[in-house]
From TrEMBL, chain A:
Keywords: Cell membrane, Membrane, Transmembrane, Transmembrane helix, Transport. This is ABC transmembrane type-1 domain-containing protein. Residues 83-296 form the ABC transmembrane type-1 domain. Belongs to the binding-protein-dependent transport system permease family. The keyword Membrane applies. It is a multi-pass membrane protein. GO terms for cellular component: plasma membrane. It comes from Actibacterium mucosum KCTC 23349. The lineage of its organism: Bacteria, Pseudomonadati, Pseudomonadota, Alphaproteobacteria, Rhodobacterales. It is found in: Cell membrane. InterPro entries: ABC_transporter_permease, MetI-like, MetI-like_sf. GO terms for biological process: transmembrane transport. Gene3D superfamilies: MetI-like.
From TrEMBL, chain B:
GO terms for biological process: transmembrane transport. This is ABC transmembrane type-1 domain-containing protein. The lineage of its organism: Bacteria, Pseudomonadati, Pseudomonadota, Alphaproteobacteria, Rhodobacterales. Residues 72-262 form the ABC transmembrane type-1 domain. The chain crosses the membrane at residues 9-28, 76-98, 110-131, 137-158, 183-206, 241-261.
Length: 306, 277
C-alpha cells in the first residue's frame, strides 16, 4: 500500500475540513446562540420548573416534587373547567373562521369581482398586521354599553341590545367576533392563494356534466383546496388553543370564569409566583397542541394518498 | 345582461360591507381620539366629529410618570434593533444550514429551532422571565431586544429563497476557488434583495406589535413600548377613553402606513412563510 504515503495526513485533512466549514459554523453561530438561549433553554427550564416546588423554583437548589404539580393541576376544578372552556372555544373559533374564510375567499375570487378584488383583500388582511393590543382595545370599547358603536348601531337599526363582554351568555360570541376580525384575513389570503392555483378545466368539465353548485363545490373545488385547508386548520388550531391577548385586553377571564382559558389561567398562576403549577399547565397545553397538530398533519397526508 | 349587472352590483355591495367591518374599528378609533366627551356620548357612530379636539393627545403626553416620547423611542429602538439582529441571525443561519446541512450539529439545530417555534409563544415567555433573571437581563432593553430576535417565519423565508438559487451558480463560484464568504457576499447577496426587503418589513410589523415579552421582561414602565403602555393605560382605574384611543391611534397608524405602502411584499411574504412553516 504505497499510495497511503502520498495521502494527506489526518491533521492536514482535519485542518482543511475546518477551513472549509469554519465559515459555516461562524455564520450559524448567532442563530444557534439565540435559538438555544432564548428558545430551548426556556423550554427546558419550563419543563424542569414544572417538577419543582413553586416557592423554590427561583432558588439555586429547587426542591423536586415529581408529578405533584401535575396531579394538583388535574385535581384543580378551575383548571378542568378552564380546559373545557378552551376546547369548546377552540372548536367554535376554528370552524367559524375557516368556514367564513373559505366562503369569503371563494367570493373574492369569483368572476363577479374581477376588478378591484385586491382592495377587499387588503382590507381583510389589515388587522393581521396591526398590533393586536390596539385592535382588541378598540373592540372592548366598541362593545361598551354607554357609547360603544355596536349597541349604538343595533339601536339605530331597531334591534335589541347586545350584552357584549359584560354578560356570561354573550361574552364568548363577543370575543369570537373580535378574534375573527383580527385573524380571519390570514386564512382568507391563504385560501385565495390556493384558489388562484385551481384547475379551471375541471370546473368546465363539471359545468358540462351539469353538476349543481353544491356537487361541484364538494367534488371539484374542496378536494383541490386540501393544501390550504391543512395549513389553515393547523394554524387556526394552534392559534385558538392558546387564545390569550384578547382575554388579557378585553375580559380578564371574566365575567366570572367564562373566558378563563388555559393560557390565561397559567399566566395568572405564574403572575402569583405559582411557578410549578403554571409551568405544568404550560407543558400540558404544549403537549396537547403538539399531538393535535401532528394528528391533523398526519390525517391530511394520509387522505392525500388515497 | 341586466341580471348580470345586478349580480355584480350586489357582489360589490357585499364586498364593501365586509371590508367596512374590517376597517370600521380603525376609523372609529381615530375619530374617537379627536372627539369631545359630549360628542362621544351623544353621537357614538358619527365618524367625522363636528369639531376637532386635541385634548386627548395632550393628556397622554405623560403617562405613569413617563413621557410619551420614551415609549415612542423604546418602540422605535427595540423594533429596529431586534429587526436587524433577526435579519442577520436568521439570514446567515439559514444560509449555513442550507449550504452545509450535514455538518455535525446542524441537524440538531434545525430540530431545536422547529421545537422552539412550535412551542406556544406566550408559554415560552413565562420561562423567559426565569432566563432573564438568571442572565441578569431582567428589566433591560437588551434582554427585550434579544428575545424578540428569535424570529419564527424569517428563517423559512430565507431558506426558501436560498433553495430557489440555481445550484450551478454556486458551483461555478466554487470552481473559481472563491471563498465561502466571497460566494455569499458577491454571488448570493446581490440576488437576495427582495427576500431581505420582505423579511425586514414583516419583522418590523411583528416586533412593533409585540407586548407580552416586553411586559414580562420589564421591571418598570421605563422599558415599555407603545402597545405595552397602551395596555397599562387601558387597565388603569378612572379610564380616559379618548386618551386610550389617541394612544391606540399612535400605536396603529405607523403600521397601517407601512402596510399600505408595501402590501404586496407583506402579504406574499407572510403567506409563503406560513406555507413553508
Amino acid at each position: 500500500m504505497t499510495t497511503r504515503a502520498n495521502a494527506p495526513s489526518v491533521s492536514v485533512l482535519a485542518r482543511r475540513w475546518l477551513g472549509e466549514n469554519a465559515t459555516f459554523y461562524l455564520f450559524a453561530a448567532p442563530f444557534a446562540a439565540l435559538t438555544i438561549v432564548m428558545g430551548l433553554w426556556p423550554i427546558a427550564l419550563s419543563i424542569q420548573t414544572s417538577f419543582t416546588e413553586s416557592y423554590t423554583a427561583l432558588s439555586p437548589q429547587p426542591t423536586y416534587v415529581g408529578f405533584a404539580n401535575y396531579i394538583e393541576v388535574f385535581g384543580d376544578p378551575v383548571f378542568t373547567k378552564s380546559a373545557w372552556l378552551t376546547l369548546r372555544y377552540t372548536v367554535l373559533a376554528v370552524v367559524l373562521n375557516l368556514v367564513i374564510a373559505l366562503f369569503y375567499a371563494m367570493f373574492l375570487s369569483s368572476v363577479l369581482l374581477s376588478r378591484g378584488a385586491w382592495i377587499f383583500k387588503l382590507c381583510c388582511f389589515l388587522p393581521v398586521v396591526t398590533p393586536d393590543v390596539a385592535g382588541y382595545i378598540v373592540w372592548k370599547w366598541m362593545y361598551s354599553g354607554d357609547f360603544g358603536a355596536v349597541n349604538a348601531a343595533l339601536t339605530a337599526l331597531g334591534l335589541p341590545e347586545f350584552g357584549g363582554v359584560s354578560q356570561v351568555s354573550t361574552v364568548t360570541l363577543a370575543i369570537l367576533i373580535a378574534e375573527m376580525w383580527y385573524h380571519v384575513g390570514f386564512y382568507v389570503v391563504i385560501f385565495l392563494a390556493n384558489f388562484a392555483m385551481l384547475d379551471r378545466t375541471l370546473d368546465e368539465a363539471a359545468h358540462l356534466d351539469k353538476a349543481g353548485f353544491w356537487r361541484k363545490f364538494t367534488r371539484v373545488t374542496l378536494p383541490q383546496l386540501r393544501p390550504a385547508i391543512t395549513i389553515n386548520s393547523i394554524y387556526a388550531l394552534i392559534q385558538f388553543l392558546k387564545t390569550f391577548t384578547v382575554v388579557v385586553v378585553i375580559t380578564k377571564g371574566g365575567p366570572g370564569t367564562a373566558t378563563n382559558f388555559v393560557s390565561y389561567y397559567a399566566y395568572r398562576q405564574f403572575d402569583q409566583a405559582q411557578y410549578g403549577t403554571a409551568t405544568a399547565m404550560a407543558t400540558i397545553l404544549f403537549s396537547v397542541i403538539m399531538v393535535l397538530a401532528f394528528a391533523l398533519y398526519w390525517y391530511n397526508q394520509r387522505r392525500d394518498w388515497r | 345582461m341586466s341580471r348580470d349587472t345586478a349580480l355584480r352590483i350586489a357582489a360589490y355591495g357585499l364586498a364593501i360591507a365586509v371590508s367596512a367591518f374590517f376597517v370600521f374599528p380603525y376609523l372609529w378609533m381615530i375619530s374617537a381620539s379627536f372627539k369631545s366627551t359630549e360628542a362621544i356620548l351623544t353621537e357614538p357612530l358619527q365618524l367625522i366629529p363636528d369639531s376637532l379636539s386635541f385634548k386627548a393627545y395632550r393628556d397622554i403626553a405623560v403617562m405613569s410618570g413617563v413621557g410619551l416620547g420614551t415609549y415612542v423611542w423604546n418602540s422605535l429602538w427595540i423594533t429596529l434593533a431586534s429587526t436587524v439582529i433577526t435579519l442577520l441571525s436568521t439570514g446567515f443561519g439559514a444560509y449555513a444550514l442550507y449550504r452545509a446541512p450535514k455538518l455535525p450539529g446542524f441537524g440538531l439545530l434545525r430540530v431545536g429551532f422547529l421545537l422552539v417555534i412550535m412551542y406556544p409563544y406566550m408559554l415560552l415567555v413565562m420561562p423567559v422571565y426565569l432566563v432573564m433573571f438568571k442572565l441578569g437581563l431582567l428589566g433591560t432593553v437588551t434582554g427585550i431586544i434579544l428575545f424578540l430576535s428569535v424570529g419564527p417565519i424569517q428563517f423559512f423565508l430565507f431558506e426558501q429563497f436560498f433553495r430557489s438559487i440555481p445550484r450551478e451558480v454556486i458551483e461555478a463560484a466554487r470552481m473559481d476557488r472563491a471563498s465561502e464568504t466571497r460566494i455569499l457576499f458577491r454571488v448570493v447577496a446581490p440576488m437576495a434583495r427582495p427576500v431581505v426587503v420582505t423579511v425586514t418589513l414583516i419583522t418590523i410589523l411583528l416586533n412593533w406589535a409585540q407586548w407580552f415579552p416586553i411586559l414580562v421582561i420589564s421591571r418598570s414602565t421605563d422599558t415599555y413600548t407603545l402597545p405595552v403602555a397602551l395596555l397599562s393605560l387601558n387597565s388603569e382605574l378612572g379610564v380616559n377613553f379618548q386618551g386610550i384611543m389617541a394612544l391606540a391611534t399612535l400605536t396603529t397608524l405607523p403600521v397601517i402606513l407601512v402596510y399600505l405602502a408595501t402590501q404586496k411584499y407583506v402579504i406574499e411574504g407572510m403567506i409563503s412563510g406560513a406555507v413553508k412553516g
